[in-house]
Every structure is written in C-alpha cells, then in structure tokens.
Amino acid sequence: MAHYGTSAVRASVASLSHVKDVGTQCMQYLGQLRQMRQWTNSHSVAPAFGNLHSSNGGRNRDLKRFLEEVGTNPKEARYWLKQFQLVSGSSPSRPFAVVQVDQEIFQHSQQLKALSSNLAFLHRNDMKLLVVHGANLPDDKYLSDQELQNSRHQVTTETMIMVNFLEASGAPAHPIFSGSNVLRAESIGRGTKGKVTCVNKEALEWCISSGHIPVLSSIGETSSSQLVSIDAVHATAEVAKAVQAMKVLFLNTTGGLRDRGGRIIEEVHIPADLDALMKQSCSSQDHKTKELVCGLVADLPPLSSVVITSAKTILTELFTHHGSGTMFKKTERILKYSSLKDVDIDRLKKLVTRSFGRVLKENYFKELEGRLHTVYLSEGYSAVAVITQEAGLNVPYLDKFSISLQRQGEGTSDMLWNCVRRDFPSLFWRSRISNKVNAWYFKRSEGSWSNSKWTVFWYGISNQQLSYTLVEWAVKKPKSFHEPDEYEEWPAITESL
C-alpha cells in the first residue's frame, strides 16, 4: 500500500473540522496542497508519456506509445477520428469525458501514475476532461457523523494527491474543494450524508475553458451551508448529466462487470440488454451501480457511452473496442420482420443505397417478396440484415447486411450480426472481392471461396459438396445494384438520397 504525504499533512487535514470560515479553510487547503506538491516532487512522479510540449521528439514518442497501446486497426482509427471531431466542434467549456476515480486507486501509486499520465495525454490533445472522486457510500450501511467527517477529510487529501499527479504528468489541474457550491445537495435522514439536487456548472466550465482539468470531490453543500458526503458514483452521474459529456468513465482497480461465469461483460446495449443485465445475480452495490449507469445512459446525448473499467486501460477503452471494461450505450432496438408489409421501403432503400454507395435495381424489393425469410431492421433504419430462402437450397442466404455510415464503428454491426447468428445455425453470402468489409466477414465465417470478382462466405456447413453447390449458386446470382456505367445519373441519385 502506498502512503502519500507526511503525518503533519494528515494532522493538518484532520484539523479542518474546527475551521468555520470558508476563506480560512481555503488558505489551509492551499498550504496543504503546497506540501503535497513538495512531497510529489521529492518522490519523482514522472509522466509515463513524454510531455508533448517539450519537443517534436517528445510528441512523436507520445504518439508512438499511444498507437502501440491502442492499436492501428482502420475501423478503430475511424472511431478515434469521429471522437476527435466531436470534441473539436463542441463548446470550449464542455468536457469530452467525465472520469470518476475510485477510492481504491489512491492506494496503488503505479496505477495512479499511469492514469494521470493517460489523462494528461488526452488533455494535451484537446480532449477536455473533468475528474470526480470521493467515497463509495453504501445505502444499506449506517455511517456515524464522525465516520462521514473522517471520510470527507480523506477525500480532501485525495483531491490534492490527484492534482499533484496530474500536474507532475504535465496537465494543469484545479481542485474543486467542498464549500465551492458546485454540488448542491440535500441531507439524507439526520446525518451528514446527502444526495445531489443540482450541479452548479459555472466553476467547472471556468476551469475547463481556462485550460485546467477540474478535480471535484463528491462533497455537497445544502441550502443551509452544511457539508454532506455524497456517494461518488451518484455524484459523477449527476455531473455527467449536467455537462452532457460524450464519455463517462467509472475507473476502478479490477475492470468491468462480470457475468455468472466470471467473464467480462463487454457491452450492454440500452434498452435491449437491460432486462437480462438486471436479472443477473450480483452484490447490492453492483446492482445499484447497474441501475444508476443505465439511467445515466438514457439522459446523455445520443452517441454518448458509459464505461466501467480499470484505471490501467483508459486509452484502450476510449479509442478501441477491445478493452477490459463494460461499455454501456444507447442503441436502437433490432426489430424482426417476416415480410415487407410493415417496413418503410423508401427508408430501407435509402439505407442500403447510402451504405453500399450503389443504386438498387427498381424491381429489387418486388422480387425479394417471394423469397424473403427474415428482415432484421433497427428501429431508426440505421442497420439491416436481409435473409432469403432460395428455391432448391436448404441453407438460407444473407442477401444484404448494411449499416449506415453514422453507426459504423460503434458496435452496431456486431449487435445485428448476433441477432442473425442466434436465429440461423447455418448461412452463406457473397461479397465483392474489393469490399473493405471482407476482413470483418472472414472473422465471422467458417469457410470461404474467392474468384476475381466475388468472395463467398459461409458458416455452419460441414458438407463439402454442399459448399460447392452454394458457391456455384452465389457467383451466378444476378446483381442487385446498377453499375455506374449502366446508370448515367447514378452519382446524382445517390447524392439526392
């Protein structure tokens, strides 16, 4: 266990319970902060990533290490680019991510060092951050006023520790101590435990717009100026809703949520996976966290996500789809149809045309009706899979698998594929040899065959003769789309769609 600071600092923090005047309190905080900085400097808390502002060489080393950690998959690169674009177009005072640092992390200096370095990297690259930390206060356990007071003193010390580690990593940070009236609260029962009623964003926005990372402790203030301890997860959720963050990260020392078999639950789609998630047995604290996070996702912007993960993997979680955490995100429900009767054909046509970049032949949907087996379609018409049952073949055919450009890179394709795979034990399909998605298809197929024009994929087929039959049928199947040279107005039509 790592120990931060001297006994004198801890004694000074404990004495704050006797200080009534807020101005005097702030002066004592600043004095303690200077002592903590001296301690940090004497213990050589160096950044794991180089300081980007030091030199071009440092910038290159920083970037190289970042790419080594998160990988260079093109799909993920598009995802990073989208995130950076969202940030660059947002308000200068709006954080890209709200990051909650669990209290346990402060007991592990190496994790805290790595976390601070990663947060500093994001800050240097204009990814605005807001850090929240504090105590985890269980609902089912009574804490005396003295215990809550001691907890607040510990949280104050941890605020200073967090600020020092961030600044040692090259990121200017600003502590938001209790008494700042940021977390307006009401007390619960007769004790000094409370819950957030309103978030005063002014101080947070000022910190962010001035180029600092706000470090906010989960200590609230009531209308009568009483300080109350607030559960850190609850405080983080309320802050994230108030600032409408694109990302919310709940960081711990262990990683994401686990299923009954002990495996990490990688993704939770809200509302589709909500019932199954809440039925899983877990501790009362985990159940409380699940409820809170699911409610938070519903109150964030459409493309936002919430992640529960280890402090060691923050960059991987932010910029890839293979982290060690659990990602919660809003997704459209996948609806299942056995006919086109209830499908908006015009909207479906636009989806397929835009995602393929080609114009469907006029009779496509009319011909589809006689051989259609199942259509999987997202509620907002951003993803579709069309399965047909072709005459003379016992294996269903995947005729179309299409994701809108706006949803690509967000896991929608995996969610749609899981629906298909769940209902169809065997399937085959074809793709143009030049299709950039083929790498994704290869990972999900069990067999394939290619010529100069097509690649035919399949899974669930062990009979070699049957696979020959399916390949022969697939390569002879008429095209669904017009070729550009067959349709002079093709570019104009796709643009108008």
Automatic annotation (TrEMBL):
> SUPFAM superfamilies in the record, alphabetically?
Carbamate kinase-like
Name the PROSITE patterns for this protein: GNAT_NAGS (PS51731)
Gene Ontology annotations of biological process type: glutamate metabolic process; L-arginine biosynthetic process
Q: What GO molecular function terms would the record report? A: acetylglutamate kinase activity; L-glutamate N-acetyltransferase activity
Query: May I have one GO cellular component term?
Result: mitochondrial matrix
Write the record's keywords in alphabetical order, separated by commas: Transferase
Annotated InterPro entries: AceGlu_kinase-like_sf, ArgB_GNAT, Asp/Glu/Uridylate_kinase, Vertebrate-like_GNAT_dom
Where's the N-acetyltransferase domain? 332-482
Q: By its UniProt entry, which Gene3D superfamilies does this protein fall under?
A: 3.40.630.30, Acetylglutamate kinase-like (3.40.1160.10)
In terms of PANTHER family, this protein maps to: N-ACETYLGLUTAMATE SYNTHASE, N-ACETYLGLUTAMATE SYNTHASE, MITOCHONDRIAL
Q: What is this protein called?
A: N-acetylglutamate synthase, mitochondrial-like isoform X1
Q: Which organism is it from?
A: Acanthaster planci
State the taxonomy lineage.
Eukaryota, Metazoa, Echinodermata, Eleutherozoa, Asterozoa
